[in-house]
Amino acid sequence: MSIAAIGYKIREQRKKLGLTQAKVAQQLGISAPYLNLIESNKRTVGGSLIVRLAELLHLEVDELSGLAEQRLLDDLRELPADQMFQHIPLETNFADEIVARNPNWARTLLTLYRAYLDNNQALRMFGDRMSLDPQLQSSVHDMLTHITSIRSSAEILNEMEHIDKAQQDRFHQVIHSESTELSKVAENLVNLFGHQSAKNPSLAPTEELDDFLIGHRNYFPQLESIAWEIRESIEKSSYLTFEEGISSRLEHQHKIRIETISPNAPGNDTFTNQTFFDPDTRQLRFLAHAPNTTRRFQMVRLIASLEQQDTLNELVNDARLTSPAARQRAFLALSAYTAGAILFPYNQFLDAANACRYDIEILRQQFDGSYEQICHRLITLRNPEAEGIPFAFLRVDPAGYVSKRFPLYGFPIPRYGHACPLWAVFSAFQAPGRIFRQISEFPDGHRFLTIASTVTKRAATFRDQPVLYGIMLSCDILHADRTIYTEGIDFTDKTGSQKVGPSCRLCTRPNCQQRQEPPLVALH
Amino acid sequence: MTKHILIAEDEPYIVESLGFVLTHAGYTVSAVRDGQAVFSAVSEQLPALLILDLMLPNKNGFEVLKQLRSDSQLKYIPVMMLTAKGQEQDKNTAEQLGVDAFMTKPFSNREVVDCVHALVSLDSS
Q: CB contact, 8 Å: B110 with chain A?
């Protein structure tokens, strides 16, 4: 059974509900033979038809379309890439079967694997600490030195004959003194490790947040409505500009003082980010170099988190978020989502995106948003009733650390390790600020349009380094003609595609000059 | 005439116990505790063997060893290095610099004495 077999699911559920093909077809407004073709997997189903079908068959759209299972499958397929399993001949095809037959077993397997990775990471951190930490190195050195003295003195007392009383006393004294010192070193080591383990954050919250967002397809209708209401009430206020409206709402309604401070201001060593909110003093501070787009965004984000605390808490009270840390991250992510939805209202933004063919620069000007904010909003346009182009999203730093990810079917963004260095986002670092486009072809032949650029967070002072991120959006080649980014290139010509992979371990290309790690499965 | 061993080690109790066992084994022993002082002590005393700790204050054992091995008068003096680190990289570095023996703490007195005998007799043969 394949998870792609959507037709079988429709037939199975229809029969379970005791509905005939004719009845369902009539309610859908299609012919019975056409429904028969869908159920036989001879016709694809999507758009509003799948939404109506899901409604009629009492299923979630993701459940019916197999998207939820597909994500589970993508994650499961990463497992064999781990060195731990290299001696077990795992055929990735069977992952389909596990997910299809018993998704809960697949989830259990994945949960266990993530727990293993979490512990592994903690071990590696301890290993690094052992080998690199000066405090620990010094403690180990002291410990071995004291043990050497104790051992040597004990051997003298034990093995050497004709030692006078004064010498015996002296070496007893050495043993006593050195044992006391050794105890102190041991105590310090215990404190060091105890302190360290408390500081070791679990990896799980980030991954749980990923799952939570992907599980919602990064679309939250409830937050869209709230955002619309907030925006409307600000627009209806008597202030001249939207900015005045939001700052006034914070100052008058929430008694929050908004301050801009110079990085050189005396005593400003409390925060280094462009923005900081202190709930105790109710001060929202911006460093002077924070751009307007950041100020607007952070102000509406604060409004959303103050006014919609209950709604956000209700949403993060989700079984996928198992710890307070994960729920806290999710709360922050959802307040940012709401801020995006307030500043870039769904329908207006979608219409504008379609009209300008997803030209990010035009959208930035039209909605006064930063490059990253606009890209973020583009990946939330997933209302099944009015959907934008489905994009995958990636934010990565120049060292390759992925700090934000939103995968797409067929475009797997590795959860662990590094991504393919041939992805356009890594080329973007060569010319910061320029937009790179790429037709990327994965080993399975799946092709994507990729748009990548960098964003720079300005440095506060000469002494600080500006922070650079690569931002990448990718969509299925099927949607490429809806964007401005295929202008002047023949994206139908497969020979012009850049051959990429997910990551070296998962990639099956035999002759790639960029390969840094051997493939999981030997290539023929 | 008894042979002279110079111990370069900053931990006084280790100097004391090593000095005791080596004296009992028939050597004369002197010690320095600072890396800066090793070179001049070796130049003055011309010991039959230098027992050199790696982690010495002011100048570490590698630097001292390198300095000795580049001196035409002193380069043949055998050196036994002591370390509490015992990492492969340290051993490799010491070997590249021309160490004669490498001893990892905590060592036994017997190990040290055996090694000293071997190095000193090799040197005099």
A: yes
Q: How many domains does chain A have?
A: 4
**Four-way CATH pick for B4-124: 3.40.50.2300, 1.20.1600.10, 3.40.190.290, 3.40.720.10:** 3.40.50.2300
Q: Among A131, A151, A174, identify where a domain stops.
A: A131
The H or E element that residue A337 is part of is helix A324-343
Domain presence at residue A356? no
Q: Give contacts of B 21-80 with A, CB under 8 A.
A: 21, 24, 55
Got the DSSP string for A58-98? T--HHHHHTHHHHHHHHHHHTGGGSGGGTTS---THHHHHH
C-alpha Rg value of chain B to the nearest Å: 13
Given this model, what pLDDT does residue A400 score? 85
Burial (CB < 10 A; 0-12, 13-18, 19+), residue A160, is middle
Model confidence pLDDT, tens digit, residues A273-329: 778 888 888 989 888 888 899 999 999 999 999 999 999 999 999 888 888 888 999
Give residue for tokens 């990729």: A450
Would the CB atoms of A171 and B55 count as touching at under 8 Å? no
Contact assessment for residue A339 and residue A275, using Cβ atoms and an 8 Å cutoff: no
Q: Which residue range forms the structural domain that includes residue A309?
A: 205-343
Residue A480 lies in a domain: yes
Q: How far apart are CA A396 and CA A418, in angstroms?
A: 10
Confirm whether A321 is domain-assigned: yes
Q: Where are the domains of chain B?
A: 4-124
Interface confidence, given as ipTM, is 0.82
Chain A contact set for B105 (CB, 8 A): 144-145, 147-148
**Domain-located, residue A280:** yes
- From A174, A199, A224, the end of a domain falls on A199
Residues from chain B that touch A156, judged by Cβ atoms under 8 A, are 17, 20-21, 109
**Cross-chain residue pair A153–B107, CB shorter than 8 Å:** no
> Does pTM surpass 0.90?
no
Residue A4: the pLDDT is 47
Residue A144 is nearest to which of B13, B105, B110, comparing CB atoms? Answer: B105
Query: Do A264 and A400 lie in a common domain?
Result: no
> Is the CB of A152 less than 8 angstroms away from the CB of B17?
yes
Q: Is residue A314 located within the same domain as residue A304?
A: yes
The A-side interface with B (CB below 8 A) comprises 137, 140-141, 144-145, 147-153, 155-156, 159-160, 167, 170-171, 174, 177-178
